[in-house]
């Protein structure tokens, strides 16, 4: 529509009255509450979502220093207008954000980009990797195993003295256009092979047939093209999702230290150490969400490797 109007206007002649220029006077004014603090997001789902309800919920959860506003754009984009850099850093560092088990993916806003130029296909998740022998649980192993899943952003050391015990916890930038990775194969120096299971924190709704985020099992195109019987068709399940636990002072998501692997202006380790209250509130909200899949999905749950 906008392109059609531009083409039309290019063919018209305008009067002197219409040609009067409006000159901006903001050049020398403080623009600290301008676009440089904004983010742009997109709901990565095929489901219909009540956006107004989502705006209200996020505003109540984020505890921002200043008011945040949402503006719906064309092509499904949503402009998130933060008023300061600290608020934007905090919220982006706490990604992913879910509403009704749908992923709302956010990236920093850039005035020179069109909606199509933003990368909404990658989002950071905290993943837990289990079944690795304890003697191999160190930083090098975390980097190697994490890199086999995606781009490693941070490592969460559960205990600075003894390292990990049950699993390694790593923040990884995941390509959500690909099926969720379920395992990593690890072979030690003696040739012994281990199948290391992967589970995802704050995992949104995904398909139990193809493993893709964004649609449910009932709406999967692969289901219609599959000739497998119902017992073998489900290759993914709820076992990929880390169960939500209510957080208290003795049971928090933050450990004794988080080592940032990729450091940039949107990743600040100090923020990770000081946002217990916000993470706790977001997790309690996740706990209230219900599993919106049919009984056939529940029956597809596989045993954890």
TrEMBL record:
Signal peptide: none
Swiss-Prot/TrEMBL keywords: Metal-binding, Zinc, Zinc-finger
Biased amino acid composition, Basic and acidic residues: 286-295
Compositionally biased intervals (Acidic residues): 296-305
Membrane-spanning residues: none
Listed InterPro entries: At4g02000-like (IPR040256), DUF4283 (IPR025558), Zn_knuckle_CX2CX4HX4C (IPR025836), Znf_CCHC (IPR001878)
Molecular function GO labels: nucleic acid binding; zinc ion binding
Record flagged with keyword Zinc: yes
Every CCHC-type domain range: 207-221
Keyword Zinc: yes
Region (Disordered): 286-305
Protein name (record): CCHC-type domain-containing protein
Source organism (scientific name): Gossypium hirsutum
